Amino acid sequence: MLTLAQLEQAIRESWSADLSEDPEDWSPENPARGQCDITSLVVHDFVGGEVVAAGVFLDGERVESHMWNRLSSGVEIDLTREQFRRGETVGEPVARLRPDTFEPTHPRYHRYETYLVLAERVRDRLGLGESR
Q1: Where are the domains of the chain?
Q2: CA neighbours within 13 Å on the CB side: how many for 102?
Q3: What angle, 0 to 180 degrees and rounded to 10, lies between the N-to-C axes of helices 109-125 and 4-14?
């Protein structure tokens, strides 16, 4: 049986600059940078629950969005919160519906394609073969 610790390790070992939404800010010292959206989808694949999102604020100004997971028990899993190292604060989360499919015309389709790469890397690290 897969543990959350095994899933977390496989995800963390799969992150890289080529998957980051912010590749210019990504570094081996901050590997979670720009990985939250795709990481939340991979976690959702394995444990279900909800994908939640919130604004990220720096000096009172919204600077970006952040995504993570909330299980049906209410426990939150946020593997990428550590990416915020400049004093950012994360606002109140709102549950997001996960679409069954993403159309190539969707403005964030490129992130869906990146999610597919991360999902494959994680499944390979876990010895599970092809993703759903």
Answers
A1: 4-125
A2: 15
A3: 120
